[in-house]
Amino acid sequence: MVQQTLKTPEELLRFQLRTAMTMENDSLAALGELAKAARSAEIKKLFRHHADETKDQIANLREVFRLLELKEATAPSPSTKGISRQAGSLIERTAPKLHDQVVLSCALGNEHYEISAYQSLIIAVSGMQAPQAVALLQDNLDQETHTSEELYATLQRIA
Ligand SMILES: [Fe+2]
């Protein structure tokens, strides 16, 4: 397949938004897997709560496409697929008593990736006279940041 070169900031943004959509879909799937692999009820609950937030984040991204008058679509996100694969293989090769530690650290990695994706999107959309779109992306970024802090604090507590 011939890949089209992205030539303008707008084309780059459209592609990154599509990648973010895949990233959130991957996160939703990963959170389900991590909740299953977690041993403590508290950590399972934390993942389920963030899975609910992730559904809202997907809705926010849909709205951003609409506000920017872009066709909603997805683009490949090999990074999030890789993070999930790495989590799966680490869970497989660790003893069950370490699984809470493993799932928290893998989720933390995913959150940091998501934070970087939203930071770049916010910079790109900030110059577009679309304050509502920026606000929705900021809401997603704030949720990811809050979740990463929760994961970090929980990881520190159990390690
Ligand atoms: Fe997310």
Short description:
The chain is mostly helical. Helices cover 80% and strands 0% of the residues. The N and C termini lie far apart (46 Å).
Describe this structure in words.
- There is one protein chain.
- The chain is mainly alpha-helical and 159 residues long.
- The chain has one domain: Up-down Bundle (Ferritin).
- Helix content is 80%, strand content 0%.
- It contains five helices and no strands.
- Helix 1 runs antiparallel to helix 2 and helix 3 runs antiparallel to helix 4.
- The longest helix is centred in the first third of the chain and has 29 residues.
- The protein is elongated.
- The protein starts with 8 loop residues before the first helix and ends with a helix.
- The mean pLDDT is 96.
- The protein binds fe (ii) ion.
End-to-end Cα distance, whole Å, is 46 Å
- Which structural class matches the secondary elements? mainly alpha
**Helical residues, percent:** over 70%
Strand content: under 5%
CATH fold label: Ferritin
Largest sheet: none
N-to-C SSE string, H for helix and E for strand: HHHHH
Shape: elongated
InterPro entries: DUF892_YciF-like, Ferritin-like, Ferritin-like_SF, YciF
Protein name: Ferritin-like metal-binding protein YciE
Organism: Agromyces ramosus
Pfam families: DUF892
